[in-house]
Amino acid sequence: MQSLFAAIHPFHLQRSFAMTPLRQRMLEDMGIRNLAENTQLSYLQQVSLYAGHFHRSPEELGPEEVRAYQVHLTKARKLAPSSVSIATSALRFLYKVTLKREWAPDDIPMPKKPFKLPVVLSPEEVSHFLACVDSLKQRTILTTAYAAGLRVSEVTHLKVTDIDSQRMMLRISQGKGNRDRYVMLSPRLLEALRSYWKVVRPDAWLFPGDIPGQPISRNAVALACQRAHRAAGIAKPVTPHSLRHAFATHLLETGTDVRRIQLLLGHRSLATTSRYLKIATSTVCATTSPLDLLPEVAPLPSEPTASPVF
């Protein structure tokens, strides 16, 4: 049985030949709220999987089915809390916004995500990693991601006209949350971009993809990152987003204000940016312990000593 919410390719979010009234309404509701295209696609896919699991329309299902589905995702499929959260957000939108069900918030509980600090590359590791990227285009993309702290979707959607060499800025159009912002254009990055442009001669998209008129895909960048990671032999995990983490951490460690980093990263909340305070080792771990500020304490009577273990 084909689900009433069969997955739609992102290219066809606005035009589907098999559009059901419920799917159409949900799509319109997401459009009214200006949700990102990737979010719209993800929500439709998640509701499709939910309806397919029960082989029934979501309109016929209720809180008990939602709970059973969350148990299925957690126990049977063993999905991470972050993955369950995506499905939960989609179902919350469907039932609260599109179907306007008067349910209590706990009827669709949101799983609590464990707080994990990202593993951050050192400046030397970033330099070594970039040197192992064997494609001019991909090296320029990943260098740009690190130099400006960009998300992979932001760097892939840069246009030639977004480079402002007069003001030494990069314009990020409609980043996460559909917000524009400016970030710094480093002199070294500008030099790298000019060298890349002389070879590739991009027209509209700064980093064009294989499909005419389309930017390079996120998957292509991720694959290039994986190849360079293997070639670099770095034990730490490395993804395109790792370069964004490194950008923020390295700025913080060199004394840049957290509020300024928040603006550069495009974070809506300062609390999101403040997590980098926990991993900026040169500022956190280099802090003087209050023990070192105490007056010396008289030593205890001598006892037989053993060699220290550290």
Essential attributes:
mainly alpha, hpI Integrase, Chain A, 2 domains, three-stranded antiparallel sheet, 48% helix
Structural commentary:
With 310 residues, the protein is mainly alpha-helical. The chain folds into two domains: 98 residues, Orthogonal Bundle (DNA polymerase, domain 1), CATH 1.10.150.130; 162 residues, hpI Integrase, Chain A (Orthogonal Bundle), CATH 1.10.443. Helices cover 48% and strands 5% of the residues. It has 13 helices and three strands. Strands 1-2-3 form a three-stranded antiparallel sheet. A hairpin with a 3-residue loop joins strand 2 and strand 3. Helix 2 crosses helix 4, helix 3 packs antiparallel against helix 4 and helix 6 runs parallel beside helix 10. The chain is globular. It starts with 20 loop residues before the first helix and ends in a 26-residue tail after the last helix.
Question: Brief overview, please?
Answer:
Keywords: DNA integration, DNA recombination, DNA-binding. Residues 17-99 form the Core-binding (CB) domain. This protein is mostly helical.
Write the SSE topology.
Elements: H1 21-32, H2 37-54, H3 63-76, H4 81-98, H5 123-131, H6 136-148, H7 152-156, E1 163-164, E2 169-175, E3 179-184, H8 187-200, H9 218-232, H10 240-253, H11 258-265, H12 270-274, H13 281-284
Antiparallel strand pairs: 1-2, 2-3
Helix pairs in contact: 1-4, 2-4, 3-4, 5-9, 6-8, 6-10
* CATH class assignment of the largest domain: Mainly Alpha
Using the coordinates shown, work out and report the CATH topology of the largest domain.
hpI Integrase, Chain A
Please name the fourth-level CATH homologous superfamily of the largest domain: Intergrase catalytic core
The outline comes out as globular
Distance between the termini: 64 Å
From N to C, what is the helix and strand string? HHHHHHHEEEHHHHHH
Task: Give the tally of β-strands.
Answer: 3
At CATH level 2, the architecture of the largest domain is Orthogonal Bundle
**Could you say how many structural domains there are in total?**
2
Overall average pLDDT: 85
Q: How large a portion of the residues is in β-strands, by DSSP E?
A: under 5%
Summarize the main sheet: 3 strands, antiparallel
The percent of residues in helical segments reads: 40-55%
Class derived from helix and strand content: mainly alpha
- Give start-end ranges of low-pLDDT stretches: 1-18
User: How many distinct helices?
Assistant: 13
- Main-sheet strand order equals 1-2-3
Radius of gyration: 25 Å
